[in-house]
Each structure stands twice: as structure tokens, then as C-alpha cells.
From TrEMBL:
The lineage of its organism: unclassified sequences, metagenomes, ecological metagenomes. One of its GO terms (biological process) is DNA transposition. GO terms for molecular function: DNA binding; transposase activity. PANTHER family: TRANSPOSASE FOR INSERTION SEQUENCE ELEMENT IS1111A (PTHR33055). Residues 17-160 form the Transposase IS110-like N-terminal domain. This is Transposase IS110-like N-terminal domain-containing protein. It comes from marine sediment metagenome. It holds the Pfam family DEDD_Tnp_IS110.
Amino acid sequence: MQAQIKKLDFTGQNIYAGIDVHKKSWKVSIYSEELHHKTFSQPPKPEVLHQYLAKHFPKGTYYSVYEAGFCGFWIHDKLQSFGVNNIVVNPADVPTTDKEKKRKTDRVDSNKLARHLRNRDLEAIYIHKRDVLEDRVLLRMRRMLVKDLTRYKNRIKADLHFFGIEIPEQFNKNQSYWSKRFLGWLNELKFHRWSGTDSFKILIEQVITLRKNLLEMNKKVRALSKDKYYHKREALLKTIPGIG
């Protein structure tokens, strides 16, 4: 008599995966509607998780969740492409007991995520398309350049105050402050020792470089604003008093 092999079939059943993401490994907890299946570590690759789910829960409906953070949203996109219904949540919005706070481990975190996902206690954050995320990188880069430029300008002013060097009256006007002539005056300053002069010149060079980079970045942002995706939004913003 030939033995019959019964194949696993999870059609119509929901499987939940809570992922505690890290750079070198993930801690994953798997739950069904009734019980906790397993908690394990795996390489930080979405395809590995999908392969595990497909092998142990074939034809099931897969759900997963991880917390927003350093890893961005590429994991979300990958899991979605594999047919896994993934969401990303704000870490501060995940319900946490006092016991879980005191016993905070990767295992506890992944179990907590999977359990709340199964109980439908989590609210997903909105994730923009890849193009929009890359555009935001450009805007963040501009903001960073502005902060860096301000920081170096403040360092130059701090050095002037520290050594009692007064700024000439003609450069105290708004239109002359940090002008090309003012930078030229700064560059001609001589300290008592070469070490002071050279370190001050390096600060000036940084300001000139950052201004050049910021000018180029402003051109790119203006070009981005002409994109059809943002053009209408820009026009609406300009109708607001004080902006347009």
C-alpha cells in the first residue's frame, strides 16, 4: 500500500511576522491566529523571510511589520513585491507594557510587534513612493548645507571676537555682510602666528565652498519645483500671504 503524503496548505489562513530590524541581523517572530509559531534570527534580507514563510506556510496570507528607523523603506518595498502585506509603524505608537519596557530585548520587541499586528492594534505610517523619497533627500541636503554654512560663519565670528578683531563699519550693513569684499577682507587678516592665520583661512575656504555648493543646490531645488508632480503644489503655496 502506497503511503500518502499530505502537503501543507494554509489557504485562507493569516500568518503574522514581527520584525525587529538591525544592520547585521533581524529578529523575527511568527504568529498564526491561534498561537506563537517561532522566534528566530535571520540575515537582514527580505527574500530570506519570504522563503521561510513560503516553505512553512505555503499558500498562506502573509502580514509583517517593522518599526520606522535607520533602515528606511526599502525593506517594505521588497516585502510588498514578494506578496507580503507589510506595514511600517512609528515606534512611539506601538503599545508597550511596563514589563516590556524593563525587559527590552530583540526577542521581546519582535514578539510585541507580531502580537499587536495580529490583534490589529497597529496603525501604519504613510510611505511615499521612491521618487518622492529621493527628492526629499535633495531637500534635506540643502537644509544640511544651510546649517553647515551658518556653523562655519559663527566659527569665524567667534574667532574675531576671541582675538578682539573688529569688523569695519562698511561691512556691518546687511547688503555688505558676507559679501565678496567682506570675505576678501577676512582672507587678508594676519594673526600673530602662522597657525592662527592658516586655521582661519581654512574656515574661510569652507564658507566659500559651502556657498558654492548651496548655490548649486538652490538651482537643483528650483528645477525640482518645475516637475509636474510639484508644480501645482508650488503654485498653491505661493498663494499664501508671506510665502508667494
